[in-house]
Each structure stands twice: as structure tokens, then as C-alpha cells.
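ASSEMBLY PREDICTION REQUEST
Request ID: AP-0331
Submitted by: J.K., bench scientist
Number of chains: two
Total residues: 367
Priority: normal
Notes: Please return the full assembly, not individual chains.
Input sequences:
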Amino acid sequence: MKNATTAELVDGPLFKRALLGSLSWLTANQEEVNRLNVFPVPDGDTGTNMLLTLQSAVEDIRESDAAEVSKIAALAAHGSLMGARGNSGVILSQIFRGFAKHVQGKAALTPSELADALEEAANAAYRAVIKPTEGTILTVAREAGRAAKNAAQQPDTNVNVVIRADPARHPAGGGRRRRRRLWTAGDPRGVPQDGRGVGDGRAGTGRGRQGRARPAQPGASRGGLGLLHRVPHRG
Amino acid sequence: MSTVEQQREHPGLLRHARDRGRIEVFPSVVAAVAGHAAVSCYGVMGMAARGLRDGVALLLRRDTLDKGVDVREADGQLVIDVYVIVEYGIRITAVASNLQSTVRFEVERLLGVPVGEVNVFVQGVHEERNDG
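STATUS: Completed
Returned structure:
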């Protein structure tokens, strides 16, 4: 088995483990995500919707032993499309779709290809809405893409570094204040939008991509897409 | 046109008797609220004019969003029809169901009037151009 910490490329099996890891993480944390759901309708089902969408996304992947990352990504895109539930689920499916389109025909991704794919996934998600609301999964996807891109440009980088790229440390960032502004957009009380929840879902993806395909431990993450654990909990 | 004449022209408009006078909200206002809620929904690329023109859905501009919404009253509750164009490649039933709950929530939140039904009519699909 490929050692995740020294992985040079993201191939099919690694991406598969990543997605399964995300699913484990979200399964363990769906209630917390539900509690954060205030936009557009505060009905507290974001975590559940996202979990159902992700479950559908990985359904066919479990049986697949495809070596190419493109095949796993295509299965995820199709599965999430079919099982999309709620706004966050629909957006998640569009993110998978953008990712899958970008990696079409590729057997494995280099760090910079992975970063490009993450960025393109976010762009695709933004293209399917007229009035994007910041502080939702869209913001998380975009910032994660930017951070990954930035990390990929550093010398001696590897896939793991790209995955763990922290949007909060993005040069264009501005640290916690900017993060809070983004994360709480649209809500006058400053309550994190469901974007945080969605962010946690992506955090799971990030962690999974590092190859930890086991039930994730909340709070065990350092940096990476798991940054949202450190956002002040004000809901 | 006087207010009284307008009222005669809009038999379906909402009326609320209040101790200190009346508050009336015209259906076009409900339609505007519903229209804005609709275009904030993920996957909705625009409102469409009711009915097809030469078999083609007409995308409405931002200032005429309410033209893509029909509002009527039934048994003291609002029935809202929304005509939209959605992005190609997303599960349309999921978008439509999100649309229903968002429109209902926003109209009830802003106007305080119970919404009985939100009917979604998908008039067309839009495909992004710079698709890689």
C-alpha cells in the first residue's frame, strides 16, 4: 500500500480511500453540521443531506478497483448527481462534477494537477448559481482550491502538502478576521453558515485523501482542509 | 389609477385587517420576494416568463423577476407558481425541491403569510459556456 505521507501522485486507489475516509468523518459528525445550518432555510438538515449525497457518491466506488483517478472521480460525480439532497448536496455534486471533468482521462494527479482540479471544481460550483452566498460550501471550496494552488507552487511540494494547504494561511488571506467574515457571511448574528458544515465535509475529504481511511477523530486534524475545526463555535 | 381602483383590479391581493388601519400587500410584491428567493437558489440560472414564446423559454432580466411568478390565494393560504431555468448537469428534482422550501421560507419570513403550495415549473436548462 502506498504510504500517504510520501505519495507523489493521487491515483484511483488513494482517491477511493480519501472518499471513504470523508464518508466516515461525516458520518461521525453529521449532527454537529446539522446544528450549524442556518442558510438558506435553518431546518438543520445540512449534515444529513450532505451525508446522504456522499453515501450515494461512494456507493459504486466501494466495488471499484479502478487504478485511474479519473474513473473514481467519474463514479463519484455520477453517484452524487443521482443522490443529491438539499442545497449543500447539490453543490457537492457539482463540485465532484467539476473535479471529474478536469481530471478526465488522467490516471494519476501530480500535486499541481490536484490543485488545479480542486480549483476547477470550485469554479464549476460557482458557475451554477447567479447570486453566490459567501460563507457556504462555495467559499470553502474556493478557498481550499486557492490554498492548494498556492501550496502546489512551492518547491519540493508533494500531494500531502497540497491536501493540507490551509486557506487561513493563504497570502491573500488576512487570517482569522477574514475567515470569520467569510464564514459568517449573510447572517447578521455572525453565526457560521452551513458552509462550515460543508467545510467539515471537505475537511473529511482532505483527511481521507491523506489515506486515513478509518473513522476520523474530530479535532485530530492539524491544518489542511480541517481548518474549520478551529473556527470559533458561535452557533 | 387610485388605490381603490387598483384593489378592484387585483381581487387576489392580500388583506390584513389591523387595529390601526389596513396593511395590503400586492401579489406583485409576493412575486418579487418569491422571485428573489428563487434566483438565490443553487442551480437556478434565471426566472422564465410564463409560457413559452415560439416554443422557447424566455429568460427574464433581473428587474422583471416577478414576471416569472404567479401568486394566488386559496383558503387563506398562498399558492405560488415559479417558472425557472436551471443549470444543466444538476439533479433537477433536487434543485426544485430546494427551491420549494426556500421560496416558502422567504415568503413566510418576510410577509408572515402562510404559504400553501409552491409549484415549480422548469421551463428550460442552461448550459455553461466555458465548460472545460
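REVIEWER COMMENTS: Residues 27-126 of chain B form a domain with the Alpha-Beta Plaits fold (CATH 3.30.70.1350).
SIGN-OFF: pending second reviewer
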